[in-house]
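Weekly structure sync, notes
Attendees: PL (lead), two postdocs, one rotation student
Agenda item 3: pending single-chain targets
PL asked that the sequence for the first pending target be pasted directly into the notes so everyone works from the same version. It is reproduced below exactly as submitted, 360 residues in total.
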Amino acid sequence: MTAEGAASETFEGGLLDEPTTADLRAKVTQAWREFAGSLGGLLPTLEPDSHVDLTLDPTASGTGTAVYSVSIRVLPDGVIEALAVGNAALPQEFRMDRTAVADMVALGWSPPGVLPGSGDSFGLRSSHDKASQFAAVVTRTLRDVYGAPHPAFLVYLVHDENDEPIEASPLGTARHEPSIEVALDALDEAGALEAALAGITEDVVPLEERVRTVVATMSKTSVDQLQVDADGDIGIRAGSAMVFVRVRDNPPLVDVFSPILTEVEPTEQLYVKLSELTNRMPIGRLYCAQDTVWASIPVFGRNFQAVHLMLAMQVMTGLADELDDRLHGEFGGKRFFGEGDKPSAPKAEEDEGHRPGMYL
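Predicted structure, written out during the meeting:
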């Protein structure tokens, strides 16, 4: 189980009217109900061979190299099938213990390999007329077993068997990957850049290579000259901030993220501010984990589009360089290239005994 302790302390900033008195747990519970209801309503409307991929954003959830996901497929004759990641696809330190595996089985999942074609994944099969119950099981799996603190930490993609996106109703506060298209007008790159990237979207080229080509082209440098750390993350300096690009394999996912501030005091005022800022962002999110404020924009690696990564990089580099200054001035902390910034005194004392573990 992952991040389970944070789930009870997470709140949805968009619904937060009175941060000092609001029932945060009730708001999180309501958000999960809305997500389950939306998923249960969507599944019966999809044509056979449609897919819904749900992924817990590993950057936002703090699960490191572990990627927890559930993939749903609509079969003929009103059958719905789901595969949920099992321990074989998880790093040793993030594998589910016996209790978590038992919880999966208790929810109705078949152990890996039992459902035909499930391989190393847990399997679940139902029908359209039981879509609500099916969605409830998937929701409880993501929340209670995989430890998603809030639906907005989920990224989802609805697509056909050829990986072409399908228009679908929103799944509550979860982030719809194709919605990145709505912000593409903000991308103003020359035709020469598009031409340089035109040949890297073929599936025969590994995702990591395609990503490095995009980053190098955007940075006006060569792949060999990219700044890559020991974890394989590509670093891009953006003023006083640093932006990282990380490629994950299972499922294919590209994280564009930045540690906006470190050594910051996690106060109620900070969570409210991050919530307000996230609600204004067309893509991505801001959150606080322990004493670090992070910004994250996940990009799906399946059916990878170079222009999506280009947009995420452009948004993140501008966002990080602006926000680290703004938030540091208000809440203190240390910027990545702040040369010894120190925390400022908090504006108001936090209520003793109440400190949300993550924010939405």
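Discussion points:
- The mean pLDDT is 78.
- The CA atoms of residues 235 and 244 lie 5 Å apart.
Action: rotation student to compare against the earlier draft before next sync.
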